[in-house]
Every structure is written in structure tokens, then in C-alpha cells.
Amino acid sequence: MYLNLTAYQLLQTELNWMYLSIDVNGMRDCKLKMANLLSESQRIQYTIKTKTEDIPDARTYLLTLKEIRVKRGLTDELDVETMMMDALEKVEKELKKPLLRSDKKGMALLTAEFDKINKKLGIRKEELPKYEEALELKIAKVQLEELKKDALEAMETQKKREEFQDEKMADVKSLDLRNFI
């Protein structure tokens, strides 16, 4: 995970967000047209964007990112969050006040600290798509295992039913579509 304070730079993906803009009485209301076509990283990014857009200070922003990570079940194996909070404390100590996200000078200092941490961890901005792909693969494997477990459980339940006792269980290899082509 690349350390930066904007949601788009956090996951650093090029997304094809589809927004439906509605202009009602001079107010612009943008809604995401999801249709369940977003990848897991895109959903995380959308969650980050919506949950953090009104947060004025950097500390609350980072704590919200941690909360989102925990809710999504993502682990912080490199203990990046602690390093980010330490960098924030260092910048706030230097500024002698809480860091607001609108403070360009303070955010530049924090970004510089994050860049140092990234360099120390060996994380390069160019490799972010690779990390995202690994995350998607990990999530897909977990979902596949859950699906397999559910299917086996359903098959076992059917097998135990009285009306199916005299029927033979289908051989999985015989159900392969390529055998019928």
C-alpha cells in the first residue's frame, strides 16, 4: 500500500467510475452507478472516498483508513499504519498544531515523510498495480474456497435426504462441459 493521503493515490488505480450527475435546485448530486461491476479494490477506494471526503484533519483521516481496513479484513503486515501515525506526529510537532488536509505546506511535509517510509519499505509507485492485482487474487481465492465449501455442504445435505438415497452421486469429471462438445 503506497502511503499518501488521497483516496485515489492510496490504491493508485485507474478506475472507470461511472457517475450519474443530477442537478437539482443548483445542487449537484453525484451517485455511483455500481451495478456490481466494481472490483474489490475499486469498492475499497469508493468506500475510502465516501467516508473521508468531509474529514478536515489528517489524523481522523488516517484513523478512518484504519477502520475501513479492519472492516474489510485487510491486514497491515508491514505495520504501515504505525509508521504513518509516527510521520503525522512528527509533522504536527514541527508545525506545532494539528495538521489539516487543506494545509498545503503541512501536507507536503507529510507526503515527503510518507515517501521516505515508502523508500525504506521498498514500495514504488509504479508497482502499485501489481499489489492491487495480488490483493484481487487473494480475495478471489478466498471467495472461491467459500463457494467450494458451500457447494460441498449442499451436496452432502442432498445426499442425506431420503429421496436421494437410491441415486448415485454424479462424478464431477463427467460434468465437465468439454466432455459434451
TrEMBL record:
GO terms for biological process: pollen development. The lineage of its organism: Eukaryota, Viridiplantae, Streptophyta, Embryophyta, Tracheophyta. It comes from Kingdonia uniflora. Residues 137-167 form a coiled coil. This is ATP synthase 24 kDa subunit, mitochondrial. It holds the Pfam family Mt_ATP_synt. Keywords: Coiled coil. The keyword Transmembrane helix does not apply. PANTHER family: ATP SYNTHASE 24 KDA SUBUNIT, MITOCHONDRIAL-RELATED.
